Amino acid sequence: MDQEVLQKIDRAIQEQAWAWADEETDGGEVMYEEVSRPSTSHGGQRPATMAGQRGTKPPASKAKMDPILADLMGYPTGQTVTLEILSGWGDMLHTGLGCVQVLGADDEPVGISDITCSHPCEDTALLLSPDTRGWHAKHDMRYAESDPVVLTITLDRETVLKSIRVWNYNEGLATTFRGAKRIRLGVDGRRMSQAKGVYVRKAPGHKGFDYSQKLGLCEKPDDMQATMHSSTMNKEIADAILRVKASSQPYPRAVLDQIGFAPPMFPVGYVFRFELQSTHGDRHYIGLDNIKLWDVRDEEIPLEKENLQGIPRDVTILQQCKGDSRVLANLIDGVSGDENHSWLAPFSPGLVNVLYIIFEEPIAISRITFSNYSKTPSRGVDQLAVYADDNFIYSGRLKPHSTQHMIFTPNPSTLALDIVKATPSDPTSGVVFYDSGKVSPEEGAKQP
Asked: What is the spatial distance between Cα 381 and Cα 429, in angstroms, rounded to a whole number?
């Protein structure tokens, strides 16, 4: 395909992804007031909640870590940090990062005096700020395992080091594949990660939220274990996946008949993206009561508010909804059917709301459970699509005021569940065309 065409597509996708983020704030001012939205409460003024009493917290004091305690916790002491890029997200001619910070024992950035690179590259000063377009080096990534691109970071002093904070390459959606996928870490010539390196999430292709990731440093890296019970880095999880796939167990025919296609089995990702494309009729707001993810053992994956991001985040970004209780964190509180434990966000036909569930380690899922918005069913999600690390895994329609499931396991027990009907089953009809960041007229006509 012509490079100019690809660039135009990339710009259009970026404009769509940035549209909500740009509208949310402009110099600190809320920008949604141009749209006349009806009140979200039928019973008068909504009572104030903790969400409506936000203030600026004074910064917590940071005490310096005792060297003996640092040693007991396995944190290294040093002045030179190395990052060996062992693989990327798909670009075979380049590799890159957006920004790098070295964090001390108090979780604060340590001063950097110099960054050098082992291969021809752009100015490494681009790595010092997350606001730049990013840094990259030219390299044949087929040979990265044996000949990695090595960044050497010299700090302004020797100190206890806790982690490396990285922002992956994020110049645009099409170039996120240039980002590093696997990095081996070192301090003063000592390896601080497993020999195969640590995995780095692919950037989202926009800057609608802070997508940085902390990579821990450890003096005994080969003893490091998965920190998440549901991570594929956990041997029990990896073995469970292998057993099912080795058995060649197919999806039950009755399940396939309900779904309409064969979804990928146990999709794995660091970032699960939910594109909420339409409501059941409301043109101003979109909402859900709850989302749950289940691992390959059919156990619910614990989620914290730090795992969630939303563009737009929720209705509290609107001036008239400051203090509203229907905030993003409610999606994972386990409560359904209570409006004060639901999530609601501004919605405009033609713009796609996006939810993200983000993990520090790769997670394989067997199903996703959605409890649709119950207070006002017309505000519930209708059409949505789900991606794992930008790979499409499911597209379907949710029923109003219902609890339904997307299935990624051949387990026959799923027959008893209300399964989300996939639509469309033809992948080409799942393409949405954008013109200057807006859904094209043909697609827009399908909006309620």
From this structure: 19
Q: Using the 8-state DSSP alphabet, how is residue 9 labeled?
A: H
The pLDDT confidence band at residue 29, using thresholds 50, 70 and 90, is very low
- Minimal CA–CA distance to 164: which of 109, 88, 219, 233? 109
Are the CB atoms for 327 and 333 separated by under 8 Å? Answer: no
Tell me if 408 sits within 8 A of 367, measured CB to CB: yes
In this structure, what token pair is assigned to residue 335? 């409560």
DSSP 3-state of 300: strand
* Residue 374 CB coordination number (10 Å): 21
Residues 6+ apart with CB under 8 A from 335: 289, 290, 341
Q: What are phi and psi of 46, to 5 degrees?
A: -70, 135
Query: Beta strand 391-397 with 383-388: parallel, antiparallel or unpaired?
Result: antiparallel
Cβ–Cβ < 8 Å for 386, 241: no
User: What pLDDT is attached to residue 150?
Assistant: 97
> Tokens representing 316?
């509290």
**Distance set, CA 345 to CA 317, 373, 391 (Å):** 9, 11, 25
pLDDT confidence bin for 225, thresholds 50/70/90? low
**Two structure tokens written together for 431:** 């393409």
**Which H/E stretch holds residue 24?**
helix 3-24
Q: What is the mean pLDDT of residues 158-177?
A: 92
Distances (CA, A) of 349 to 7, 230, 276, 420: 25, 36, 11, 22
Give the residue, 244 or 181, on which the prediction is more confident. 181
- How big is the chain, counted in residues? 448
> Which positions ≥6 away from 331 have C-beta within 8 Å?
288, 290, 291, 308, 343, 355
Q: Which of 385, 406, 393, 389 is nearest to 272 (CA)?
A: 389
State how far the Cα of 377 lies from the Cα of 281, in Å rounded to an integer: 9
Identify how many contiguous H helices and E strands the chain contains and give both numbers.
5, 23
| Predicted pLDDT at 180 | 96
pLDDT at 371: 96
Residues 116-160: pLDDT tens digits?
999 999 999 999 988 888 899 999 999 999 999 999 999 999 999
Type of residue numbered 268: V
Smallest CA-to-CA distance from 97 within 77, 79, 117, 75 is with 117
Q: CA 285, 348, 357, 391 torsion: positive or negative?
A: positive
CA atoms of 279 and 282, how far apart (whole Å): 6
**d(C-alpha 393, C-alpha 412), whole Å:** 20
Residue 436 CA to residue 14 CA, distance in Å, equals 10
